[in-house]
Amino acid sequence: MTSNLYKTCLGCLTGTAMILSAQTVQACEAHAFLTTQTAEAKTASHQGPVMAMDAWVPVAPPGVKAHAAYLVLMNHGADLRAVTAVHSPQYASAAIHASQVKDGVNVMQHLAQVDLPAGSSVAFKPHGLHIMLMGPKKPMAQGDTVDLALTLDDGTTVAVKAEVRKRGAAAPMNHGHMGHDHKGS
Amino acid sequence: MVRRRVLSLAAFVLAFGLGASVGWAEIRVVEPDKPETLPAFALSDHKGQPFTAERYKGHWSLTTIGFTSCPDVCPFVLSNIVEVISQMTLRVHPDKLPQVVFVGVDPGRDAPVMADYVAHFDPKFIGVTGPHEELAKLVTGIDGFYRIGKAKKDGDYEVQHSASVIVTGPDGQVHAKLSPPLDPGKVAEYLARKQIAYARAQRSN
Ligand SMILES: [Cu+2]
Description:
The complex is a heterodimer.
Chain A lengths: L5 E4 L12 H8 L20 E9 L7 E10 L5 E7 L3 E12 L2 E12 L4 E4 L4 E8 L8 E8 L4 E9 L20
Parallel strand pairs in A: 2-10
Antiparallel strand pairs in A: 1-6, 2-3, 3-7, 3-8, 4-6, 4-9, 5-6, 5-8, 9-10
Chain B lengths: L8 E6 L12 E6 L3 E2 L4 E4 L4 E3 L8 E6 L6 H16 L10 E6 L2 H15 L4 E4 L2 H10 L4 E3 L10 E4 L2 E4 L4 E6 L5 H21 L1
Parallel strand pairs in B: 6-7, 7-8
Antiparallel strand pairs in B: 1-2, 2-12, 3-12, 4-5, 4-8, 6-11, 9-10, 11-12
Helix pairs in contact in B: 1-4
The structure holds copper (II) ion (CU).
Copper (II) ion binds next to strand 8 of chain A.
């Protein structure tokens, strides 16, 4: 049932013309790369039913300007919520992406929003959903903290602190290494 | 001359061990009916040395296609390969550890950072890039694919590339294609067995 978690914006991925119709491309011009206003970043991070856990940003190789953030979002509320935008003051832009393998080819899709069904959790993890962070304002090193503001469809914002750490070091969900994964099929 | 080569691949999944209930418990590997020879190509490694098909001879290699500004999948796969190699150290002689080749298909952005990029994962990894014309030869030769998307308003562009990790043998030929995520232990086991089978076949020839 993952399909309805992803309200995809296929057209935002350039170079997918082969796969996509012109219509899809047009439809997503409207919400090109989503970035949010910083103003409301302080509100509703704890009061709201949506909680963020295990947020981390893998240390990126030097010189690389595209980073990724991973986390688990849990919706403890009774209503369906959705993340509609992401912002980080430390990066030029942030967006929600999904890495997918289509016919053996890696593609990254821009998602307009990610649904958070009531009473469940959604994992952003390597080789899957991720928060794409473009253009770090300064180099990020191990131990640094990345501030993320996730805007929800009800207008509230979830403030998240993501730890910059090495891939493979103390995995976020206390799983020794990537040989384990919780995703049921 | 780039020709699209269709490898006649016998698709099968090798499952080692127990519990194939989740994807991680098995390895997804495709082996050609018989090893495929790499075409000639002329690229450069991250030290500026020529990188040609010759560099595949005499040892096993794992090759993956990507681009250095890829935030999610490429670093994931390279870290995944680091784990495979470390698992292999438990199974094979250090001399038999595969060479790891990262083919950067976005030369404009990859070439300037390639040395630091590969060293970030393992100082022994080899980062390779070069003109698209030459990249296409290698990529096609390993039955891979890549495409550079149109530039967006901000000048950024997407890069699509095939996901697999290619296994080549000391004969410089393609022996298998693995699909990440790689279970480090299982893949190390698979590669170690492959090396033994290869050595045995060489001896009996
Ligand atoms: Cu991305």
